[in-house]
Prior knowledge:
- Helix content is 20%, strand content 27%.
- By secondary structure, it is α+β, with helices and mostly antiparallel strands.
- A 6-stranded mixed β-sheet has the order 3-5-6-7-8-4.
Amino acid sequence: MNSxxxxxxxxxxxxxxRIRYLEExxxxxxxxxxxxFFGLVEGQGTDAPCGLFEGWSLLNFExxxxxxxxxxxxxxxxxxxxxxxxxxxxxxxYATRGWIPFATDFGGGLLCFDLEPGLGGQVGQVLELDHExxxxxxxxxxxxxFLEKMVNDLESGRTLLDDAVYRPESVRIDGAxxxxxxxxxxxxxxxxxxxxxxxxxPEEDGFGGSELALALxxxxxxxxxxxxxxxxxxxxxxxxxxSLARFDRQRRSFTSVRILGWDxxxxxxxxxxxxFFHLERPWLxxxxxxxxxx
Length: 294
């Protein structure tokens, strides 16, 4: 474990009686791997400096139940299935009682055990639910595969758990985080693509790019939502639809933001505040198709 403070926040596993009580409440008997998982660890403490799995923090049973109930409450105003992007063999619904949350990204996103999979899915597969209800995807086909990937990433050094990453007090309500320069970590929404991101700050000569810049290992289309660009001269540019553009390989950062089809350069001292972002390979999804044709 390359973050002892994070390890110390792990809570002891739940006993058999507590796990059985949870099963009775949900009306499902958990598969053996999930029962074993809960028997080893029951969430993280509220003082966790960062998430355990690529920014995802484990929920204890009380938090788990709260998130599960919130999913059910959200059904009254949930988007229709036609408005949700589904990926993988899962039910085409906003939520179902068989989706058991076990981790959060502190931004409204959840990882869930799927006990009611869709056609071709596996009981116990891991789902990712985004914070706006617009995406539902199979994150891993099983808990075993999920944990194996996390362990391999940690051992290879591709995922760095750092006390400066994902501190609750450092994450702003709009989703931007104050991360120190040089920190490399996997963003939850990049996990399935397997790319790393790094955070950079302007250099003293003003040639360092935006205060919050994403440096990717290959060209990608980056879709942003609810973007606010604040420039040093006090100008504010807001939009609900934008994409980062002009990837600079030498500087390994994006140097402009594309809004409604036109580019606006990012001044060296500009602050780009992003509500959320989502990456797709150019050959995946409507966004990638449009970018490829354009």
